[in-house]
What does this fold into?
Amino acid sequence: MTYRVAIAGCGGISDRHLAALKQWEQSGGRACAVAVADTNLSRAHTAAERYGGRLSVYADYKKMIREAAPDVVIVALPHFLHLEAACFAAEAGCHLLLEKPMALTRF
It folds into this structure.
């Protein structure tokens, strides 16, 4: 099985995730990026082009998760957006990768 990975947020850190996924995919790894989402569509398109232009591009991570149906979602959004994005992806049945805390407080 190859895990389908989507990235919510195309800021600077997403480049590292996409580069690692591309390298892993090219070496026979079992994961590949399938979609990216960012409210700045230009930034999302740039990220997709760096990956090879094969990614679906979305302005809304919720729509991306519904339509691309990834197995894994990398949440690369600002801190204050992590909780909502992580919960939405988990409720959709996706595995998660969060680099930062899921929330700024425990409540």
Q: What stands out?
A: The chain has four helices and five strands. The helical segments are 12-26, 41-51, 61-68, 82-91. The chain has a mean pLDDT of 93. The beta strands are 3-8, 31-37, 56-58, 72-75, 95-98.
